Amino acid sequence: MNIIRSKDPKELGIAAGKAAASLINQTIREKGEANIILATGTSQFETINQLIKENIDWAKVSMFHLDEYIGMPVTHLASFRKYLKERFLDKVQPLKAAYLINGETDPEAECQRLGELIRNHPIDVALVGIGENGHLAFNDPPADFDTEEPYLIVNLDEPCRRQQMGEGWFNSLDEVPLQAISMSIQQICKSKHIICSVPDKRKAKAVKDSLEEEVSNQYPASILQNHSDCVFYLDEASAALLT
């Protein structure tokens, strides 16, 4: 595990996006293709902005994403499918494949469908973030560190739901769904390389817990301490509480 600190969120995003592009291109050179995970949310704005500027043969890239609300139409502002389509997929050449989570279908069947797909696409590069409550994807504390299922139906706790409202995706807490489909902790950790972009002082406590507390499902992202190739990209605000 390594930590790279930047002055501000834009600088952080540029560094993380360039690092991700380098790893993706290295994988394409070695394997002829690359399988990636993209995260969403406000913490990923600058990283994705940089990634789409990079010279990558996207036709050799297959993409998965981390989570989606159950019952969320793709037209909703908060839809992560909408986010990825508008902020990424519409701005790069067509990918080899883009495996998006459909929150509008039967969630158990969708978990099974995606699980079968990702088992056949070992992940080379994962871009992730950390929630204000320390969650990784939508695995809120106490997270399930043990299940080998690639995707899960999860309940969203109130701090998680308040974060989504606070970031402007919803007008009220009552509008935030209670459940989501999320990639599991174990599946995320199977990624060969992980880039964790975490800007903003809102995330400072979660960053400190994830990096300085013992690995615990009470701090879901602390599991990344055990990963063989995970780099945290922080700005001054998110790193402010680190000792």
Characterize the structure shown.
- With 243 residues, this protein is an alpha/beta fold.
- Helix content is 30%, strand content 19%.
- The chain has one domain (2-235): Rossmann fold, CATH 3.40.50.
- The protein has helices spanning 9-31, 45-51, 80-87, 107-119, 158-166, 185-189, 204-212; strands at 2-6, 34-38, 61-65, 67-69, 97-99, 125-128, 151-155, 179-183, 193-198, 230-235.
- The protein has a 7-stranded parallel beta sheet with strand order 1-10-9-6-2-3-5, with helices on both faces.
- Helix 1 crosses helix 2 (45-51).
- It is globular.
Topology, element by element:
Blueprint: E1 2-6, H1 9-31, E2 34-38, H2 45-51, E3 61-65, E4 67-69, H3 80-87, E5 97-99, H4 107-119, E6 125-128, E7 151-155, H5 158-166, E8 179-183, H6 185-189, E9 193-198, H7 204-212, E10 230-235
Parallel strand pairs: 1-10, 2-3, 2-6, 3-5, 6-9, 9-10
Antiparallel strand pairs: 4-8, 7-8
